[in-house]
Structures are given as structure tokens and as C-alpha cells.
């Protein structure tokens, strides 16, 4: 008799197979793919391969050693280590690895998570002699990196990060982050309800974190650099601080969801002693890592580290500054598969040139018809259970 895990995996495979058949293969295209090495990728990456061959897999640095990474390695992808410095400063090496990994005349689509290629895509595309079709970016953090790059991308950027199909995932990610923070605190004989929380970054995930915290009865304040985001948070009943230092000084739990290095030297100096810090993105996105090195770390458990300044001030950091929810497999249920399905449609749209302009920027998105197709197939496989 199949286990529950086996059943869920079979259901995912059936959904992705159905979707791949409707989307169709991206002819003549090969993928250079950044990926989280987590449980969902065990099923999603083979499904992506049904749309176009994955010729180079670049694991996100902080997930490269997970148990799931060993399973993914068995799928026989060409795997190369990834870090931001390598991609942005050593483009000669990057291009050489891509050339050795891909077919000589194939068109290439970069599947990015977190804007790794934002500063170097033009240089890489130029060196690859026009072979780069474009980039599919999966996160809001990454989209913002492409938008703020010194030089505008000279190849199309298509994103799923601003899709309505991502809203369920964003909320569940926020819920998962709070779940993991509470689980870690309980391991240390602490409870969440004794703390006052600050959510830094009131975007789609950050707003979900704030709502879940408030729903759990946790006094929650918000800070964001965007006047629009601050106004929205205030309109939803949150106490909003225009200055991050003031928000940090009244909070004993900080959850950062900016992807913009919000937790720098000044922020750390204003964190209350004994505060707990968690993030929803990677340590190299939320922290200025050189500033974090000003504090002395002591490992308390695999899930939490104590940092002190050599005096009486200290703070706790969950999961070494990487996404808190990754401590528990980043499991958010079938909602995630909506946006994974849209990624498949986005790659096909990039290959065919059928993507459309997004509502707020010149960064492209998939069409409304493609989104309806993904949702229709998702409904068929996941509704009613």
C-alpha cells in the first residue's frame, strides 16, 4: 500500500504531466536553472524538463546540502555551485560553464530565483552570441533586482512573482515562517505570545506574516520603505513606523521580508537585546553579511544561533538567517503548485515570444488565458479532496 507521501508525489506528477501536455514543449530551447533543493523540486524539476531540457542546475547556496539535494542529484542534472559573487564578478567562468553544459547552437532561457543574474545578464548574453532568449524570474525580490540593476536588461524578463496565482503561496509561506519561528522558540522553552513582533517589509509575503502574527494574538508593528506599503499596512490596522530603528526598538521578534539587505549594521545596533530575528529569504538577501560578522556567533542548536557583541547585548538568529520555514521543509501544500505551473507556461511564452507586458513595469508576464489554463488544470487535480 502506498504511503501518504507517495500518494502526494504521484498526484503532483499527474498534475505536472497534464500541464506539460497542455503547455507544450519549448522547441530548440535549453534551460539554465537556479533552484531551491527542497522537496517540491524533486517533482517540479523533472516536470520542467518536459518543457525544455535543463542543461545546467545551479542550487541556491543555502539549500545545496539538503537531503532533497541528494535525491535531485540522482536525476542526472549537470550541477554547478552558485553564489552571487561568482555570477556577478566572474562572468568569464560563468559563460565557460554554460558553454560546456549546453548544446552549441541552442537558445537559452535562464530560470532565476532571487535575481542572481540581474547585474550580469547583459554581459553573459553578449558573450553567448545572441543565444539568450530571456530570463524567467520567480520572486518579487528577484524582479526588484532586475528593475534596479544599473543597466536595463537587454533580453526579455518575464516574471510570475506578481501573478494572482502566487497570492495563495505568499500567504502560506508567511504562515509557514510563523509556524517555524514558534517551533524553534518552543524548543528553547519560550512561547511566541510573550513577544512583540516587527515585520520589516510589507510586501506580499511580509503582509501575510503580519496577518498571521496578529491572528495569533501577537502585538505586531510594521516598517517598509515604500509609502504605499506603509499606508496599506496602516489602513489594515497595523501600527506603522516610518523609521526602522524605532520599529526595532519596540520589538522582541523581528521577521524581515525585504530581500533588500534591510538588516545592516545600523539595524543590528538597534535590535533589542534578547530579540529573535528570522527571515523569509536568504541570509545574503536580508543581511549585510559583513555587518553580521561584527557579532560573535554561538550555535545553540541547528535551528538557532546566539550572536553577541562581546558585551551584554545579544540576539537570536533562526536558521542562520535563511528562510525560517525551510527548517520544516517549506511545505505549504498544493497552493505552491499554482505558481510552479505558471512558471512552466512562462518559459513556453518566453520561448515563443507570446508573453505580455506587466501592469506596473515593462517586465513581462504570462497572458490571462495562460493563467486560466494553469488554474483550470490545478482545480481538476486538487479541488474536492
Which radius of gyration do the C-alpha atoms yield? 21 Å
Tell the overall outline.
globular
The N- to C-terminal Cα distance equals 19 Å
Widest beta sheet: strand line-up:
8-7-6-9-10-13-12-11
Poorly predicted sequence stretches spanning 5 or more consecutive residues? none
Beta-strand portion reads 15-25%
Instruction: Tell me the number of strands.
Output: 15
Helix content: 40-55%
Number of helices: 16
Q: Strand pairing plus helix content: what structural class?
A: alpha/beta
Largest sheet: number of strands, sense, barrel closure: 8 strands, mixed
Average of per-residue pLDDT values: 91
Short description:
By secondary structure, this protein is of the alpha/beta class. It has helices at residues 4-23, 39-51, 67-73, 84-89, 91-101, 121-127, 140-148, 167-187, 204-215, 227-235, 244-249, 265-270, 283-286, 289-292, 335-352, 368-382, and strands at residues 29-35, 54-59, 107-112, 132-137, 157-159, 197-200, 220-223, 239-240, 253-256, 275-279, 296-301, 304-308, 314-318, 356-357, 364-365. The chain is 44% helix and 17% strand.
Amino acid at each position: 500500500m502506498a504511503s501518504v507521501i507517495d500518494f502526494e508525489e504521484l498526484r503532483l506528477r499527474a498534475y505536472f504531466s497534464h500541464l506539460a501536455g497542455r503547455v507544450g514543449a519549448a522547441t530548440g530551447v535549453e534551460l539554465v536553472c537556479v533552484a531551491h533543493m527542497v522537496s517540491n523540486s524533486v517533482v517540479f524539476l523533472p516536470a520542467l524538463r518536459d518543457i525544455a531540457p535543463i542543461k545546467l542546475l545551479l542550487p541556491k547556496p543555502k539549500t545545496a546540502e539538503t537531503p532533497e539535494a541528494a535525491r535531485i542529484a540522482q536525476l542526472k542534472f549537470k550541477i554547478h555551485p552558485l553564489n552571487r559573487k561568482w555570477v556577478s564578478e566572474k562572468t568569464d567562468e560563468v559563460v565557460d560553464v554554460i558553454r560546456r553544459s549546453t548544446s552549441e547552437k541552442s537558445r537559452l532561457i535562464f530560470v532565476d530565483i532571487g535575481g542572481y543574474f540581474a547585474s550580469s545578464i547583459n554581459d553573459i548574453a553578449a558573450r553567448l552570441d545572441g543565444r539568450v532568449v530571456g530570463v524567467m524570474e520567480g520572486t518579487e525580490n528577484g524582479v526588484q533586482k532586475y528593475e534596479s540593476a544599473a543597466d536595463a536588461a537587454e533580453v526579455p524578463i518575464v516574471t510570475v512573482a506578481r501573478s494572482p496565482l502566487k497570492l495563495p503561496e505568499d500567504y502560506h509561506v508567511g504562515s509557514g515562517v510563523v509556524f517555524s519561528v514558534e517551533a524553534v522558540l518552543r524548543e528553547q522553552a519560550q512561547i511566541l505570545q510573550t513577544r512583540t513582533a516587527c515585520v520589516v517589509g510589507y510586501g506580499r509575503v511580509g503582509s501575510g506574516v503580519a496577518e498571521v502574527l496578529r491572528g495569533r494574538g501577537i502585538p505586531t508593528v510594521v516598517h517598509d520603505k515604500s509609502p504605499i506599503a506603509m499606508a496599506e499596512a496602516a489602513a489594515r490596522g497595523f501600527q506603522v513606523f516610518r523609521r526602522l530603528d524605532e520599529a526595532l526598538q519596540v520589538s522582541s521578534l523581528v521577521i524581515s521580508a525585504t530581500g533588500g539587505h534591510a538588516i545592516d549594521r545600523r539595524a543590528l545596533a538597534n535590535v533589542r537585546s534578547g530579540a529573535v530575528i528570522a527571515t523569509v529569504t536568504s541570509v545574503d538577501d536580508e543581511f549585510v553579511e559583513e555587518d553580521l560578522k561584527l557579532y560573535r556567533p554561538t550555535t545553540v542548536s541547528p535551528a538557532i544561533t546566539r550572536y553577541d557583541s562581546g558585551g551584554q547585548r545579544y540576539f537570536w538568529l533562526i536558521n542562520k538567517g535563511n528562510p525560517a520555514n525551510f527548517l520544516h521543509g517549506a511545505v505549504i501544500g498544493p497552493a505552491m503548485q499554482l505558481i510552479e505551473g505558471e512558471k512552466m507556461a512562462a518559459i513556453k511564452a518566453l520561448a515563443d515570444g507570446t508573453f505580455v507586458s506587466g501592469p506596473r513595469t515593462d517586465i513581462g508576464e504570462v497572458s490571462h488565458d495562460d493563467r486560466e489554463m494553469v488554474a483550470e488544470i490545478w482545480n481538476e487535480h486538487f479541488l474536492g479532496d
